[in-house]
């Protein structure tokens, strides 16, 4: 199964096509957060949590005009799937979905959505937070922040991929 890259995918964009458990995805179009939340609906769940990470317009007092995410896509997808499965097991979740956007993202747009459902709210809250922390630590996805003055900065400069040049990209 490949990573969907088109808005023409069916309503179950954030579910596996084989009817199995929920899947983690990388996408290049805006994330439909309500679809991510709907993907984890489960009659066994007493709690549904949706975390949405958005591109902010100011970081540590410095204006940001937009972001761009790059990834080692096959490794990133594999790691998201592994983390999703670990969260389901660790927190006894009914369902879980993780969607991370790649490419250019405007201020205010979602860059990641994590939805979990479980029998109780405490585990669901903890699972969403744990997933976000693990994704930031382990997943080969890099973020470039663009400034209104044309400057740019990688948030993980030691791991910076090739291809984020100010003259090549504009948010």
Structural commentary:
The protein is α+β, with helices and mostly antiparallel strands and 171 residues long. It has a domain at 30-57 and 72-141: Aldehyde Oxidoreductase, domain 3 (Alpha-Beta Complex). The protein has three helices and ten strands. The chain has a four-stranded mixed sheet with strand order 1-6-8-2, sandwiched between helices. A hairpin with a 5-residue loop joins strand 9 and strand 10 (152-154). Helix 2 runs antiparallel to helix 3 (121-138). The chain starts with 23 loop residues before the first strand and ends in a 17-residue tail after the last strand. Mean pLDDT is 82; it is low at 1-21 and 165-171.
Percentage of β-strand residues: 25-35%
Which stretches of 5+ consecutive residues score pLDDT under 50?
Answer: 1-21, 165-171
Q: Looking at the structure, what is the overall shape?
A: elongated
Number of E-state strands = 10
* Content-based structural category: alpha+beta
Tell me the CATH superfamily of the domain at 30-57 and 72-141: Molybdopterin biosynthesis MoaE subunit
CATH topology-level fold name of the domain at 30-57 and 72-141? Aldehyde Oxidoreductase, domain 3
Q: Indicate the CATH architecture of the domain at 30-57 and 72-141.
A: Alpha-Beta Complex
């Amino acid at each position: 199964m490949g990573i969907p890259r088109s808005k023409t995918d069916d309503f179950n964009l954030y579910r596996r096509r084989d009817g199995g458990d929920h899947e983690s995805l990388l996408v290049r179009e805006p994330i439909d957060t309500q679809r991510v939340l709907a993907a984890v609906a489960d009659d066994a769940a007493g709690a549904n949590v949706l975390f949405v990470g958005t591109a902010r317009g100011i970081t540590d007092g410095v204006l940001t005009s937009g972001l761009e995410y790059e990834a080692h896509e096959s490794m990133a997808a594999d790691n998201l799937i592994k983390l999703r499965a670990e969260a389901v097991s660790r927190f006894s979740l009914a369902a879980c979905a993780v969607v991370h956007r790649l490419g250019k993202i405007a201020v205010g747009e979602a860059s990641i959505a994590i939805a979990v459902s479980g029998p109780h709210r405490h585990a669901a809250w903890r699972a969403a937070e744990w997933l976000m922390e693990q994704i930031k630590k382990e997943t080969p996805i890099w973020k470039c922040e663009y400034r209104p003055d044309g400057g740019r900065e990688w948030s993980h400069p030691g791991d910076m991929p090739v291809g984020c040049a100010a003259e090549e990209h504009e948010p």
